Amino acid sequence: SFRAAIAFTAALGMAVALVLGLLYSRLEQRLVDMQDAVIWREAANLSRIFEQEGAQSLAALVTLKSDLNQGLVLRLSNSLGVYLAGNLADFPSPETTQIAQDGWFYATTPEAKVRARMVRLDSDLVVLLGQDMRDTQDLLDTMVRLFGLALLGLTIFGLTGGAFLARRSLARVHAINQDLQPVLKGQFASRLSLDGAADEWALMASHINTMLARIESLMADTKQVSDNLAHDLRAPLTRLRARLEALLEQSEDAARDQLADALEDVDGLLHSFTALLALSRLESGGAKLTRQPVD
Questions:
Q1: Which of 192, 230, 163, 206 is nearest to 4 (CA)?
Q2: For a tag site, which of 36, 58, 147, 246 has the least CB within 10 Å?
Q3: pLDDT in tens, 242-275
Q4: Is residue 188 helix, strand or coil?
């Protein structure tokens, strides 16, 4: 039972881990998509301001949004990379930048871990738009810890439940073994105790009791047949012995030896049947024993 519980807990743990892994992946992708939507929305807003009000208003808006501290990373620069406005004074170094195939790049700065992309507004203005990933990563790390605690709790619960079921099953097996000890000693009238529970153990105990009752009945029938056979054969053998004794007294010397041997054989048979009947009475408990001291 305990090994089965361990196997079931392991299989369930792997299934739950797979589900949690898929959930984590979907959650991570959803958060990234939400941040990308924010960046694209900001890019559209900056482009509209630039087209309607010009570069000066654009720089003022970038400065304003940089000061709001909403997790946005902004850097407005010209085509030569000269800083004009924003909260990122310098471009991230190539050593701390990882470019993705879809145009996004990941950069690590002393202040933030950024997912960003470059948006060209015209031939001379470029804006770097990004999102600080630290809060998102903290959330994902918290989810990982929670998932780990959930798997740990599932494992502990499974092992505890398995140990409980194993002890319960072993207790029932021990009880059945104890109840069967008298049967092993030949007391077929003994029965397994039934606790009234309507489960598989009670059904098995009921079947064993039915089997023991059948065995007891068959043993009683066999004993009865043996007793009847011994009684039925003892009477004709006794009469045969009486006739042989009468013939022995009337016979000549030549036939007396053969008759004496026949009488000896009949006495042996009678002794055997007497022993069988005595054993039968001993087994049934009907015989009275005479106790005597022995060496």
A1: 163
A2: 246
A3: 777 777 777 666 567 777 777 787 787 778 777 7
A4: coil
Give the tokens for residue 124: 């001379």
Say which amino acid occupies 158: G
What is the distance between the alpha carbons of residues 46 and 108, in angstroms, rounded to a whole number?
24
DSSP state at residue 68? T
- Nearest CA among 85, 86, 108 for reference residue 97: 108
| Cβ pair 245, 263 in contact under 8 A | yes
Q: Check residue 227 and report its DSSP letter.
A: H
Q: Taking the CB of residue 62, how many other CB atoms lie within 10 A of it?
A: 23
> Which residues on adjacent β-strands are paired with residue 129?
74, 117
pLDDT digits (tens, 9 = 90+) for 33-43: 888 888 888 88
Check: CB of residue 105 under 8 Å from CB of residue 93: no
Type of residue found at 159: L
